[in-house]
Description:
The protein is built from seven helices and five strands. It is of the alpha+beta class. Helix 1 packs across helix 3, helix 2 packs antiparallel against helix 3 and helix 3 crosses helix 4. It starts with a helix and ends with a helix.
Amino acid sequence: MSQVISDQYLSLLDAYPKDRRYALAVMQDIQRRFNFIPGEALEALAAYMGCSLAELYSMATFYKAFSLQPKGRHIIKICDGTACHLRGSRNLLSGIKAALGIGPNETTGDGEFSLELVNCLGSCALAPVMVVDGVYYGKVTMESLAGIFHAVREGAAV
Length: 158
């Protein structure tokens, strides 16, 4: 591993003791900083913790919160739990496909948006629910999608 790569992750790694029980926490920090876990980060973490790359890879692929693929700057999560599904979450997927040209687990060509379909966001009374960068949007309609995406692009949550 080159010195440049290890320096890129050094501040994240140095915040934790060299103990395997902290690997998950470090991976969460890496995910937060880069919006995914680069392969080089897993290699750096394996070297730092003194564990195998396979061990870390199994953790990274087990938890849905982690991604090994780059994601967009803005993460859209559409709830497809029972209440949201019954109130039109699948229609919202069609609206997002029309507006942004992406489906679930895809990222726009410009790297601005990634779309995730999730089982539940815990806000059934607001169904259908969409979360963009941690901001919840309830009772989302096809008509409101364009305004939400415009506000997100401008840096203003609706």
